[in-house]
Amino acid sequence: MSNSQEAKRYHPAYLLVELFEFLRNSFFFILFLFIFNFDVTSGWIFWAKLVFLAAAAFTIGKIFLSWWLHTYEVDHASITLREGIFVKKVRTIAFDRVQNKKTSTSFIHNWFKLTSLTLETGTSNEEASVRFPVLKRQEADAIIEIIEKGTAAETPVSESEEEESDGSLPIRPEKSARVEYFRSTKKDILRAAFTSLSFLAIFPILLTLYFQIDEFFSLEDDAENAVLYFADHLWLLTPLFIVAILISSVIGYVITTIRYGNYRIEADRDRIYITRGLGQVHTFSIQRNKVQAIQIEQPLMKRIWGIVEVKLISAEAVSIGDELATNSLYPFMKTKEAYALLGELLPQYTVQDNLTRLPRNTIWLKLLRPYYVTIIAAVALWFFRPSLLWIAAILFVISLVSRLFDYLFTRYALEGDSIQIRTGGFTTTTFITRRERIQEIEVSQSKLQRAFGVRSLGFTNRAKPIHVSSIQDVPDGLGNKFKHWFVQRKVKFE
Amino acid sequence: MEYILKEPERQISTKIIKIWRTTNTIGHGSFLLGFGALLAASQFWEWYNWFNITLYILIGITVLSAIFSIWIEPVFIQRTWRYEVDEKFIQLKHGRWNVEHKIIPMAKIEYVTTDQGPFLRKAGLYSLNIGTTASSHKIPAIPEEEALKLRSLIASYANVKEDDSFE
User: Fold this and answer.
1) Closest partner residue to A445 among B5, B99, B167, by Cβ?
2) Which of A115, A269, A364, B82 could crosslink B8 through cysteines, CB 3.0-4.6 Å?
């Protein structure tokens, strides 16, 4: 592709992609209005049909007009978009403002050898990202290449403050060389399918299906007969149950494969690239030195399976209308494997092993704190449904266990330039960041904490939105150490 | 070179106690008026009983809160508020039962402004707002001259180039 080109329209497949998108978004309306209520021609359903048809006509018209009127123009330094049907809008986005690029390829894109490309800039307003719904693959690659070339040339000048000095870091591959660090295997997918419990998804689906069918064919009587039949022949339920589990396991596996299949984590000197999905391929990349912190999440279920989800905290990583948070490295990775990968990808954030536990007496402090949820629930239930007061007891037990877990699992380490805290009861969150990445700190102490000689630490990291981390009930001494540690941060005066 | 953090010592003006008492009286008073009006309407049009009960509870809470935040709280806040500004950090510390100590690096500060409402103006005071990319903070009630001096001091300190690099 030459460095500059004429303003041009999107590929005609734009129409197909957008129409398909429209159909997918209105799937349930169509199902409900035109399939379930096919022959209803009166009442509110009739009106709803009319409104839907009008909206559909409007949307389809808009799609065609948009295709006709929207143009884009790429030159060596920027992209200019002309948009709008009634209100004309011209947007120019300079390449050096682009922080992240995402491509997403659906099956329609695949037919025509196209892809969609989203460029994100650092700003937080609605103009922050540019989306090309359809783009020839070569064109997308060319744009990405221009941007990468731009940022590469840019880096030494404008980002020297963020750039890591090479001295103590292991030698990284050259800018151009992309190295693959992780590729999901069948085993990973299986693990993912099991941990996400997607095999249980069949039961709600079956239930809704049952009620849907029931409405039309009034299964009630037959179902009652069936229930009676099964009640008499209980042993019959077991194979049925096994079959249901098997089917749903397969469905869960397929869903997980579509979503997380072919998961790849690659990196070159500057960036980390994440590619995922079968059929619909998503790619996402993030600048290594823009990572502000690392967050490792472990719900109870994942902890049992020894699996973690590693998230990269960055002010630049924004997920745009995506069902999956894009700042996640891989949501189902073996703990050891994840830590090793982190060490390679982001050596400045190593996971510490020698963590300190909370002082023993803080368990009483944790248990002593008021049980607000329990109290509010109890009062509300006592007023409105005294017969359900036992729910408050269950809540009380849950919060009790959660606090015990919190005491048992909370850990901290303050070493060198990095701080690591792990908090949480049922879901533990480990947070690792560096002194230079912390925006501000807060050390606080309540009256109750003072009696136990402990404090709370809090610190803020840049992210979208701002990320505030805190750890409760650490010894007084650590509070002072934390303050002292933070103020030793290095600032270059000019 | 080791940097030793100085315990914050600068205090805010005692005049703020009276101002907080006034503003809190106005705030709580208007809430009470609103609840009173709702209660009167409820009696007049005979609304549900639970609505009245809720209103009585809210009024009770507001009265208790008023007693605390008009007579007790302002004194303690003023007495315990400390701040410190040097060329590297701004420190804010306040609270008696719940002590909070914030440390904000100068290099992260994006803006600093002074504010003055009608009550502050009458007392010749300013409040100082400090903003970072992450948050904004307020030092309430600093005498005019000191506030303006502090503002330009912070502005000049904050104009440092941040070294974000790892060594």
Assistant:
1) B99
2) B82
